[in-house]
Known about the structure:
By secondary structure, this protein is an alpha+beta fold. Among the domains are: 2-154 and 226-255, no CATH class; 264-351 and 393-407, no CATH class. It is 38% helix and 15% strand. The strands form 6 sheets. A 4-stranded mixed β-sheet has the order 6-10-11-12, with no helix packed on it. A hairpin with a 4-residue loop joins β13 and β14. α3 runs antiparallel to α4 (63-69), α6 runs antiparallel to α7 (126-133) and α9 (148-155) packs antiparallel against α12.
Amino acid sequence: MARITESLRKSPGWMLLPLRLFLGFTFTFAGLQKLANPGFFNASNPASIDAQIRAYQLRSPIHLLLGIAAHAPVVFGLLIAFGELAVGVGVLLGVFTRLAALGGITISFILFLAVSFHSNPYYIGSDIVFVFAWTPLVIFGDGQVASLEANVKRRLGVIAPLGTTVGIDFGTITRVCGHYEAGRCRANGRAICQIGACPVLNGVISLGQQRAPRPAAPAYDPERRRFLVRAGTVGVAGGAAVVLGGLSAGIGHALYKAPKAISSSLTSSSTAAQDPPAGSATSTSTTTPSSSAGGGASTPAASGATPKGTVVGPAKAVPVGQVASFTDPASGEPAYVLHPAATKFVAFSAICPHAGCTVQYAGSDRFVCPCHGSAFNALTGAVLNGPAPTGLTPIPIAEGPNGQLYADG
């Protein structure tokens, strides 16, 4: 005879409970946060799922799959958001905990390959840590600790209620006991097996999974009972996820404020890129790439000199003190150009070196990553605060005598 309550107290389910609560809350919050942010589904927002997919696609080893997702970014974003919410709610409530944890591993591994695969050193990317954090719950589940599914099963008699005793015959003990050897117990110095000193009956193995004896004449089919239990618990968990998601989306749309847009976007022109006629006047702000610390800065050049590189757009599209976006011809990645002074332009890649998100210009000479909060000096590209390990990649840029900006010279 053994007390199930005592066995459950020694169950790894109690030891895994803090990890389970952390992972469940984190994934629930992540899903709700996405659903509550209308900008996440707005393609014109630099922090949208569309912009993130296109940025990740440039570096990710699963770029082919991301290319497919880029054709339906809103659908992909909704799948990720509701997937995270389903995993989080399932783990918190204890409904199909192993299956929910497997979903958590899948989502974390996809995010690792898409987002943080190139994080250096690898441990600054959290996705790979989440992959391994989910594995104990996949292996063991919730151990019937704080589990909605287990509580419902107990009420319906599918498993024994807590606090009951269950009879175990000696033959069963000898089959499951790893210490039993020809009537002697290796755990007790090969002493003759005795029920009072049996390590199995004293909680070495968990008896929490022992089923209560079935009634001789069940009121209805036990298999149907199991099906109803599973359907009911899934319905409760699914309903909770839908309600939370709907409330989060409604509140988010009501409170949403669109971020300040970049002043302009450069568009190159093949005709404008032609050199000016001989003898024509040149601009006093003619510039060429500089090797200064800023990396992407430009300095005055000899009159009439045409910078090297590719035309990315007209300089007049970036007034002094303003910033504009463009596509870096060398990498195909989004980039920004600033015009801090009359004869000076600076340009940087818009890709955050931490996890590949597209940074936003936040004013006050700062770029901010909307994914993880890294901030960068808009004039030098240097890191102001992490987790980004390095600054934004500088891009050489210069204004030519024809009024066009040349990048990657």
